[in-house]
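Aim 2 progress update. The chain analyzed this quarter is reproduced below.
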Amino acid sequence: MTHEECLEFVQAGTRTGKLATVKINGEPHCVPVWFVIDGDDLLFMTMSTTVKAKNIAHQPKVMICVDEESFPYNFVTVVGTAYAQDLSPEEMLPYSIRIAERYVGSSRGEEFGRRNAVPREVLMRVRIDRFISATDVAG
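Predicted structure tokens:
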């Protein structure tokens, strides 16, 4: 896929990203995240005390795989460098609403956004370095 096709693919629907980080002891760690694209960055939120936040503070290189879980099975993996933005709940709210609206719809976006824009929640900004993609994997 082209760069533009990869961006379009990861933004389609409500696909979650599977975030891969590396623990301090070298073990891999992979968890699903809700996210949105913001310019050249992928954004997600997490508490500053989570394993993923601690992993990123130690080793900011990440991968986020977004896949289509139906035949013929397409995927895009984002390779990038992540960093935490420690924002106030008021500064975080527009981002948390935008992310929530993607996954729960506009009717509940503000409700979920307010629930997530709290102290110790951080906005993770992943600078997209490149994409790895494949289409028609089973085709």
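Helices lie at 3-11, 51-58, 89-104, 106-116. Residues 107 and 125 are 26 Å apart (CA to CA). These observations will guide the mutagenesis experiments scheduled for the next reporting period.
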